[in-house]
Write a structure and sequence with these properties.
By secondary structure, this protein is mainly beta. Helices cover 0% and strands 59% of the residues. The radius of gyration is 14 Å and the shape is globular.
Length: 117
């Protein structure tokens, strides 16, 4: 099993910044992709950004140019730096890790991000 613990959510004004971090523990040796998803009230969960072991990152169009994802494979930890936040970024943000060998997803419990206008 893999456990994911998120931190860094909170309340911020529009135009502000937040950094979300997620630490994985347990059987992490086949984790080859980590990332962040978000779910706003009444909407489906959607990808924000993810990053593979080699360092290649993928971003949703809505956050390109405003977010940077990074990963420390030794720990392993994934961090999402979000800048120029907008009210539409308000959502619960979930950390995701993928075991490529088992083709299995793991999820954190979520952290609330609220952007006020």
């Amino acid at each position: 099993q893999v456990q994911l613990v998120e931190s860094g959510g909170g309340l911020v004004q529009a135009g502000g910044s937040l950094s979300l971090s997620c630490v994985a523990s347990g059987r992490t040796f086949n984790i080859n992709r980590m990332g962040w998803y978000r779910q706003a009230p009444g909407k489906q969960r959607e990808l924000v950004a993810n990053i593979v072991s080699g360092g290649l990152a993928n971003y949703a169009d809505a956050v390109k140019g405003r977010c940077t994802i990074s990963r420390d494979t030794a720990k392993p930890t994934v961090t999402l730096q979000m800048n120029n936040l907008k009210p539409e970024d308000t959502a619960v943000y979930y950390c995701n890790a993928v075991n490529g060998f088992l083709n299995r997803d793991y999820w954190g419990q979520g952290t609330q991000v609220t952007v006020s206008s």
